[in-house]
């Protein structure tokens, strides 16, 4: 999307034809820094350390990581090593394994001498497919926003709450949860976004607020615990969040705190939608709460905070007493019963196996492989 009028994507193949550029999201919102990935290991570290993050972008980065690996060693052993290096970078977003499986399926059958070129071609396809899918999500989600706007009085706005960052920074472009918001904004529909800060990594405060602001979308950053109050007072028309993995039964894994937001929405009859591209559907998992692996990250993400001082310096400070134990679960799972609908590129679906299977039969086949 736009950054001060200039169009950007979150990841791209550089002009040299082989290295990979990516916005270093750890530096936002205070610094806009572009990283250059030149090896498979660079791609794996970028995913693990959240230089890039967000399920679809993790998948795109892994795809280019395989292409970088094929430049280094396109043998069968090199292909296996690259897959194994990348697939363990983070455990929860299924898009990582999806992209690696897609790359492996394209590369195993061909001569090793052809693999590097083929890998970049397939990675480029995955990147362009993500953008197209998100445009589809935008159009399908827009209908929900338009239906709410139709019931509003002149001059009123549609208030959308979102959690974490499921914006264009979490994908290649457009985002998932934000895609309908950007399209509504571009169509002149007055939307306002309540942006959950999303402790401890603050993807909302640091990333969603940054991208919405640079694209000119009205928004307000709120502490994570505010959403329930806003819903009780009729200040949220709908919630739209992203997801890292949707189980076959419609359970939704997303950033920690999503489940609590869904409970508040359910209690206040606020529609709670989840936006996702079909690669995020995992038919191999039948019970999301029981079976989706929940990443636990470093306690330092909870004990420390980084910000900009009054004189412009970036500093990290400790906010938890030395010696206090810390737990840092990065995701939770919202049961399907709390989800109003799944906004996909093929329509808004009921969060259940029948709807998912009917819309995306190819995802069932993939899970069976
Ligand atoms: C469009 S997927 C975005 C999804 O990914 C985020 O997790 P992380 O920032 O840790 O990669 C979060 O769960 C978002 O909803």
List keywords for this structure.
alpha/beta; Rossmann fold; four-stranded mixed sheet; 2 domains; 41% helix; 13 helices; globular; 369 residues
Mass-distribution shape: globular
What is the end-to-end distance?
36 Å
CATH class of the largest domain: Alpha Beta
**Measured on Cα atoms, how large is the radius of gyration?**
20 Å
From the 3D coordinates, which CATH architecture of the largest domain would you assign? 3-Layer(aba) Sandwich
Can you give the helix content as a percent range? 40-55%
| Average pLDDT, all residues | 97
* CATH topology annotation of the largest domain: Rossmann fold
Strand order of the largest sheet: 8-7-6-9-12-17-18
Q: Low-confidence stretches at least 5 residues in length (pLDDT < 50)? A: none
Helix count equals 13
Number of strands: 18
Bound molecules: ligand LNRAV4D5
Strand content: 15-25%
Biggest sheet details: 7 strands, mixed
**Structural class determined from secondary elements:** alpha/beta
EC number: 5.3.1.23
GO molecular function, one term: S-methyl-5-thioribose-1-phosphate isomerase activity
Enzyme class: isomerase
Protein name: Methylthioribose-1-phosphate isomerase
């Amino acid at each position: 999307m736009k950054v001060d009028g200039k169009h950007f994507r979150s990841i791209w193949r550089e002009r040299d034809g082989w290295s990979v550029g990516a916005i270093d999201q750890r530096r936002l919102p205070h610094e806009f820094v572009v990283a250059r990935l030149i090896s498979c290991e660079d791609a794996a570290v970028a995913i693990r350390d959240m230089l890039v993050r967000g399920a679809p972008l993790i998948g795109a980065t892994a795809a280019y990581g395989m292409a970088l690996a094929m430049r280094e060693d396109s043998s069968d052993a090199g292909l296996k090593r690259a897959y194994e290096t990348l697939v363990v970078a983070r455990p929860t977003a299924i898009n990582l394994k999806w992209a690696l499986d897609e790359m492996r399926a394209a590369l195993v059958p061909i001569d090793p001498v052809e693999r590097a070129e083929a890998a970049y071609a397939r990675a480029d396809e995955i990147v362009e497919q993500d953008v197209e899918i998100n445009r589809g999500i935008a159009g399908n989600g827009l209908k929900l926003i338009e239906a709410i706007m139709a019931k509003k009085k002149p001059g009123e706005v549609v208030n959308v709450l979102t959690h974490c960052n499921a914006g264009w920074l979490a994908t290649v472009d457009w985002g998932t949860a934000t895609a309908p918001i950007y399209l509504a904004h571009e169509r002149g529909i007055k939307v306002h976004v309540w942006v959950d800060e999303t402790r401890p990594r603050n993807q909302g405060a640091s990333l969603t607020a940054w991208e919405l602001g640079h694209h000119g979308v009205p928004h307000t950053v709120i502490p994570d615990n505010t959403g329930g109050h806003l819903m009780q007072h009729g200040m949220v028309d709908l919630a739209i969040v992203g997801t890292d993995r949707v189980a076959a039964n419609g359970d939704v894994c997303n950033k920690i705190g999503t489940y609590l937001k869904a409970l508040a929405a359910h209690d206040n009859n606020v529609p709670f939608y989840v936006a996702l591209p079909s690669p995020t559907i995992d038919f191999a998992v039948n019970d999301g709460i029981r079976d989706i692996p929940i990443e636990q990250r470093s306690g330092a993400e909870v004990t420390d905070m980084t910000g900009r001082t009054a004189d412009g310096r970036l500093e990290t400070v400790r906010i938890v007493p030395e010696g206090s134990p810390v737990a840092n679960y990065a995701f939770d799972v919202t049961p399907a019963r709390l989800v109003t609908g799944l906004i996909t590129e093929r329509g808004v679906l009921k969060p259940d196996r029948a709807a998912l299977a009917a819309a995306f039969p190819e995802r069932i086949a993939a899970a069976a492989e």
